[in-house]
Design goal:
Layout (H helix, E strand, L loop, with lengths): L4 H20 L8 H21 L1 H4 L2 E6 L3 E6 L11
Antiparallel strand pairs: 1-2
Helix pairs in contact: 1-2
């Protein structure tokens, strides 16, 4: 499953509503809803684009713990986050 800007936008919008409830009580006002959605979409797209552009830099080493006895360290030569920014 790809990470998609629309899904992250929805998650940001939901988190905003939850934080509003905690801090201010009630729901965010209807005024500015479209502008907030535009802001959340831009943040989501920018974040996912940044992660996609730098996905090979996110992990440089992985340590496996096989059967609880031997530890082996491997170098990561590539990584894919399966991000779809289209």
């Amino acid at each position: 499953m790809s990470l998609k800007p629309a899904d992250l936008t929805d998650a940001i919008q939901a988190a905003f509503a939850q934080e509003w409830q905690v801090i201010k009580g009630g729901s965010p006002p209807n005024v500015g809803t479209e502008d907030r959605r535009l802001l959340f979409a831009a943040v989501a797209r920018g974040l996912l684009q940044y992660l996609e552009d730098h996905e090979d830099e996110l992990m440089t080493r992985i340590t496996f713990d096989d059967s609880g006895q031997d530890r082996e360290t491997h170098t990561v030569v590539s990584a894919s986050l399966d991000i779809d920014t289209d």
